[in-house]
Amino acid sequence: MKIKHADIRSRRRSAPSSPQSTKSTKSTALRRRQFLQAAGVGGASLFLPSISRDSHAGPNDGPPCRLVVFFHEHGVYYDSWKMRLPNSPASDQLDFEFGLGNLSQAEFSPILAPLHAHRDKMIVLDGLAYLTAMSDPYGDGHAKGWMTAMTGNYARETYDEVKSHALTPSFDQVIKQIVRAEDPSLTDLASLEYGIRPWDGTFHQMHYGLDPQGSAIKVPHVVDPAAAFATLFPDTQGDPVAAARTDVLARAAAQYEQLMPRLSSEDQTKLELHRELIADLQNRVEALENLVCDEPILEPWNGGWEWTPEMYGYRLPAMLDLASAALSCRISRIVSFQTDVPPISMLGGAGDYHHDFAHQSAPGAGQDKVDVVTAQGAAHAGQVALMADKLAAIPEDGGTVMDNTIILWISELATGGHTHDQVPVVMIAGKNTPFATGRYLRFGQTTPRPVPQGQAWYPEGLVGQPYNPLLVSVIQAMGGEQNHFGRKSITGTFPGGDTVEIGLTGPMTRLYG
After folding, report:
1. Residue 33, Cβ neighbours under 10 Å: how many?
2. How far is the C-alpha of 112 from the C-alpha of 34, rounded, in Å?
3. Local structure of 431: helix, strand or coil
4. Measuring CA to CA, how many Å separate 77 from each of 131, 363, 371?
5. C-alpha–C-alpha distance, residues 144 and 130, integer Å
6. CA dihedral defined by 465, 467, 469, 470, rounded to 10 degrees?
């Protein structure tokens, strides 16, 4: 059976005064009982396709900065990822850099080669370390990496349906609050959390927001393109029920105000979360009236639920198309992808990638292992390149959407052996962002190795430079003013036992040239 891919053609959506349906696979109305249940009034669990808003300029009447995060598992095979020129220093402890603009694709590493066309917008960051992961007492190597990569901090605990539960919010959700504070017209769709593989993703968790009491709370991600499409582009124009939704939500909010004083503190927290969701729904409904935006056409998927090359070939471009639409329509400012490993047959292997290849890919591993792990890294680089291609093809204010976008590609680990030193980081940044691009930055191994919390012994050797300042720079580029993210410092140990406090604050100055 031939599988149809997402069609990147678009249609101009009509103004609210000229209702029309642009999708044949969606119902044209949401009946009142369904809506009341969706709003939580009818006793069902909360669910309602979200409603996007009008395209408009940023707070300063210029294109807003966007952020796209690609997060993959199991790290890379470092020797297939890193790049060195003939005159590059041999010492691992020296900082250096070189330009990427004049390099041929053959001079790029096997993993980074798919990004060659975007080399003038690239910054490769080679030599960073997840210092907090090295001393985090909670979870295994994977879980510690997830926590540091996304929150810059330790975990809160070891198990809560995930191997580690965050102590503080992830940087994408912090940025979401920043951009919504700057632009009140943004709804809860300011940040989109996407995946590709059809699994529940609860073993590890990527996204964390804050509950009303200030504790980190898990934010789910969407893996089904049809569900993501319905959230961004619900078919509500001409629906008489839709016209009454705002009033229903307003009345529900008033009822919450009356009920709140009679509840226990625990129940008040739960109700406050629900009230915030209702308020977000109300904002979405009101925003629909001004929507004038192109939307992609999504062909249905009828190929089952097995993780096959056909499903990968359908879901990847579909989700990237939806992300491109959300960013270009200014519905969203942040989109993050939990990409997972492509089907193993696409990488030239067979079996379980995690245990049969990633764990077996230490330096000196057999070439069959190296080849598959290298193919995995190159596949993820191709995902990033495709996203950059799509954004660079969308015109915006005399340039393109890519000109006003930061794409950050990170992983939970440095390598498949659960290591956290020399983690692979790549940034693709548009010309209107503050970063000096077209460069390969090597960060020398000069940092005393962090002391594992609760352990009396200390490890030997030096490791890479702190990762946290990278997140500070990204947050500041998106409008934030904070000078730290996650932990502010950590204790490191020199060979011999002397300790030192390692600062994790401030932006990463080398990003600016």
Report:
1. 12
2. 48
3. coil
4. 20, 8, 9
5. 9
6. 120
- How far apart CA 354 and CA 357 sit, in angstroms, is 6
For residue 89, give the 3-state DSSP assignment: coil
User: Cα(238)–Cα(17) distance, rounded to whole angstroms?
Assistant: 9
pLDDT one-digit tens code per residue, 148-204: 999 999 988 776 666 788 999 999 999 999 999 999 889 899 999 999 988 755 578
Read off the tokens for 197. 């593989």
Which of helix, strand or coil describes residue 163? coil
Beta-strand runs (E) in 148-246: 155-157, 165-166, 191-195, 207-210, 216-219
Give the start-to-end residue ranges of the domains of the chain. 60-233+306-512, 234-294
Distance (Å) of CA 76 to CA 9, 73, 87, 424: 35, 9, 24, 7
Mind listing the pLDDT tens digit for each residue in 466-487? Answer: 999 999 999 999 999 999 999 9
**DSSP codes, 371-421:** HHHHHHHHHHHHHHHHHHHHHHTSEETTEEGGGGEEEEEEES-SSTTS--E
Return the CATH number of the domain spanning residue range 60-233+306-512: 3.40.720
Q: Are 155 and 167 in contact (CB under 8 A)?
A: yes
Write down the residue that tokens 């993703």 correspond to. Answer: 201
Nearest residue to 329 via CA among 190, 511, 147, 422: 190
